[in-house]
Design a protein that fits this description.
Elements: E1 6-11, H1 15-26, E2 31-35, H2 42-46, H3 49-66, H4 83-98, H5 103-109, E3 111-115, E4 119-120, E5 125-128, E6 131-140, E7 144-146, E8 174-178, H6 182-194, E9 197-201, H7 213-226, E10 229-231, E11 235-241, E12 246-251, E13 257-262, E14 264-267, E15 271-273, E16 305-307, H8 318-332, E17 347-349, E18 354-359, H9 362-367, E19 372-378, H10 383-387, E20 394-400, E21 405-412, H11 415-427, H12 432-437, H13 447-461, H14 464-474
Parallel strand pairs: 1-2, 1-6, 2-3, 6-16, 8-9, 8-14, 9-10
Antiparallel strand pairs: 4-5, 5-6, 7-15, 11-12, 12-13, 17-18, 18-21, 19-20, 20-21
Helix pairs in contact: 1-8, 3-4, 3-6
The structure holds flavin-adenine dinucleotide.
Flavin-adenine dinucleotide binds at residues 11-17, 34-37, 42-44, 47-49, 52-53, 117-118, 141-143, 162, 183, 274, 277-278, 309-311, 316-319, 321, 350.
């Protein structure tokens, strides 16, 4: 029987790779974790979730400062933002979290961490820092990078991506964002709130194209009211370096060409899987346009080589990467044939208001040919929301034709947190009657969850049939006022 240096080798020390490494090492597998950057943590910690959510919080604080009158307070003259201080705060949050993802911690768990860029020379072996290392099982968890779209002049024109935006030395006066996905939209609002003139150019007629149009449009209107300019149905024709500024030219659907001058260009037009240099195709691991092809057990076309996280190009979220990493541990270490199931994978776009989603939205239900009904409840009817000064947003509960809940969308304050109750309800197959009858704390935003379940149930409870039955059995006398 062939012998290998390690039971399992993991390439990439981000959310997916770290999940596998920690699980495998703690279960007693001889584990090697290889990372090309000098630190573990991946995109989420260094260039993604953590810096973006830290920046968003800072921008919200500044926004509140500039809008004190909304809360019945005197107006405040807010001094301009010093981005160096913002950057310091971002770095300090990253540093605090980095401790959980340190090489020492993984060593304590039992995993060997090596830094470098491995290349497969056969299906069990990689060349790493001039030597050969073999493992019985491999996991590719190398994540993704910002897509570099083919735009005339882009290569010659300085532009930034999520890799640079959190470490700028000063706040840009103006920013043109190419793309209107979650990263683009979150950054548009944050920079606009901090004082940058932000314009967003989007090819399609909707921002956040995976979301229902009514929810995405509501976010767009909030951002537009705060000062972000949106150019929808616009194709970028080219960009140009003007020295101290840059030019972006785009065309609308009618063929009108507009030219914008801006200090910075942020490219946020999708993600590319990090597969370069690994030699995957040469050892029989198939790739497609989105990334590494995997089956439901996260196995690639070489069954002892798994892939997880952004590199497979499916749901590019940290919690999806962690979940897929767990599936790999079940299959590769426990040898339990566990399959991935994305039915109730939640996600959230952290604009203000937030937009959180689980299961089907109307768009996905319609695409899947599912008949559905929508029940809604608005935040302007939630007492706590009014006290907080939050009036925008609603919850949509989507039921199939058998009245089974198939999805929930929440647009509103703290939507990402509010969605957690639905994560439990949908995964635990909790009945809507249970949710509606469970006592929730008053006044909380979370009452909206109970209320929307009640919205579905109340026509059944307060129906003519029930009224008639009660009248018959208990001789109720009926209305005391009005028709
Ligand atoms: C601006 C921004 C905001 C985001 N916000 C959120 C959010 O709020 N919530 C959320 O869930 N998700 C968010 N994401 C997405 C999230 O960051 C990713 O889904 C997540 O990081 C994917 O984890 P991963 O392990 O697949 O990849 P990564 O975290 O990118 O880890 C991959 C690792 O592999 C390493 N690597 C790459 N190539 C090699 C190689 N050849 N050899 C060795 N190592 C290699 C990389 O250096 C990296 O450390 C955001 C992303 C961005 C860009």
């Amino acid at each position: 029987m062939a012998t290998y240096d390690y039971d399992i080798g993991i390439i990439g020390g981000g959310a997916a790779g770290l999940t596998v490494a920690s699980g495998a090492a703690q279960l007693g597998a001889k584990t090697l974790l290889i990372e090309k950057e000098p630190h573990l943590g991946g995109d989420c910690l260094h260039y993604g979730c953590v810096p973006s959510k830290t920046l968003i919080r800072t921008a919200r604080a500044y926004h509140t400062l500039k809008n004190t009158q909304v809360y019945g307070l005197p107006p405040v003259e807010a001094p301009p933002v010093d981005f160096l201080r913002v950057k310091e705060r971002i770095q300090s949050v990253i540093a605090a979290i980095q401790e959980h993802d340190s090489e020492e911690r993984f060593c304590r768990l039992g995993a060997q961490v090596e830094f470098g860029e491995p290349t497969f020379f056969d299906e069990h072996g990689v060349r790493l820092n001039g030597r050969s290392v073999s493992a019985k099982t491999w996991v590719v968890a190398t994540g993704s990078s910002p897509d570099n779209p083919r735009i005339e002049g882009l290569d010659e024109t300085p532009h930034i991506t999520n890799k640079d935006i959190f470490s700028l030395d000063r706040l840009p006066e103006s920013l043109v964002i190419l793309g209107a996905g979650p990263i683009a939209v979150e950054m548009a609002q944050a920079f606009c709130r901090l004082g940058t003139k932000v314009r967003v150019i989007q090819r399609s007629g909707q921002i956040l194209t995976k979301e229902d149009q009514d929810m995405a449009d509501a976010i767009m209107h909030v951002l537009a009211a705060e000062g972000v300019t949106f150019h929808l149905n616009a194709s970028v024709l080219g960009v140009k370096n003007l020295g101290s500024a840059r030019e972006v030219r785009f065309q609308d659907r009618e063929g009108n060409v507009t030219s914008l001058t801006t200090e910075r260009i942020l490219v946020a037009m999708g993600r590319d899987p990090n597969v370069k240099g690994l030699n995957l195709e040469e050892i029989g691991v198939a790739l497609d346009r989105k990334g590494i092809q995997v089956d439901e057990r996260m196995r690639t076309t070489r069954k002892h080589i798994y892939a997880a996280g952004d590199v497979i190009g499916k749901f590019q979220f940290t919690h999806a990467a962690g979940y897929e990493g767990g599936i790999v541990v079940s299959n590769a270490i426990f040898h339990l044939p566990r399959k991935v199931d994305y039915t109730f994978l939640p996600w959230c776009t952290y604009t203000d208001p937030e937009l959180a989603s689980i299961g089907m939205n109307e768009k996905r239900a319609a695409e899947a040919g599912i008949e559905y009904n929508v029940f809604t409840e608005e935040f302007k009817d939630n007492d706590r929301s009014l006290a907080e000064g939050e009036r925008v947003g609603k919850i949509k509960l989507i039921l199939d034709r058998h009245e089974k809940p198939i999805g929930v969308q929440i647009l509103g304050p703290r939507a990402g947190e509010l969605l957690s109750e639905w994560v439990a309800v949908l995964n635990g197959k909790v009945k809507l009657t249970t949710l509606a009858s469970a006592v929730h704390t008053y006044p909380t935003l979370a009452e909206i969850n109970k209320r929307v379940a009640g919205r579905y149930l109340s026509p059944k409870i307060f129906s003519d049939r029930i009224r008639k039955g009660l009248k018959f059995f208990f001789q109720l006398k009926g209305r005391a006022c009005g028709e």
